[in-house]
Amino acid sequence: MRHERDTQFLQTTVLVNEAFLRLVKAQEIEWKDRNHFFAISAKLMRRILIDFARSRKYQKRGGDVKLIPLNADLPIPFEPDPDLIKLDDALNALADFDPRKAKIVELRFYGGLSMKETADVLEISPGTANRDWELARIWLYCELKNGR
Asked: What does 57-95 look like in DSSP terms, one character per residue?
């Protein structure tokens, strides 16, 4: 969320609130423990962010047009927004290749969990989680850079 422009209406509190409302409505979930809650929450936040990113690209809402406030200095280029849709596609490809590494990225990136919390959720050692995290980051970087 820290990479989003200030003009976006999807703030961190809005994301957490939306995730909470969806979790409250999902009464069929049988919570096993704290780790299960974190895993479901991270997946839910990922879905909310991806849905939001896709909705911004719809043509009826302006497509890929960037909004420029009237008080903005035009010669200064805007920082590009991270393309969450490309990241989601790359993360899905990683999940096909190695589901545990994809889950680690999801928990860390979307769930905001620390390495120790991620290892606890996945019931693996912190060292294994750290190695998987590093490999997943390299794999995703290569995937996004090559544009496959």
From this structure: H-GGGTTTPPP--TTS-TTSPPPPPP-HHHHHHHHHHHH
Contact indicator for 110, 45 with CB cutoff of 8 Å: yes
| Coil, helix or strand at residue 8 | coil
What amino acid is encoded at 83 in this protein? D
What does the alpha-carbon distance between residue 58 and residue 130 come to, in Å, rounded to a whole number? 37
The tens-digit pLDDT sequence of the chain (148 residues) is 455 444 455 677 778 888 888 887 777 777 788 888 888 888 888 888 888 877 766 645 555 556 555 554 444 444 445 577 888 889 999 999 899 999 999 999 888 889 999 999 999 999 999 999 999 999 999 988 886 5
- Using an 8 Å Cβ cutoff, are 71 and 128 in contact? no
- Cβ(81)–Cβ(5) under 8 Å? yes
Q: How far apart are the first and last CA of the chain?
A: 25
Tokens standing for residue 148: 């496959």
Give dist(CA 82, CA 84) in Å, integer.
6
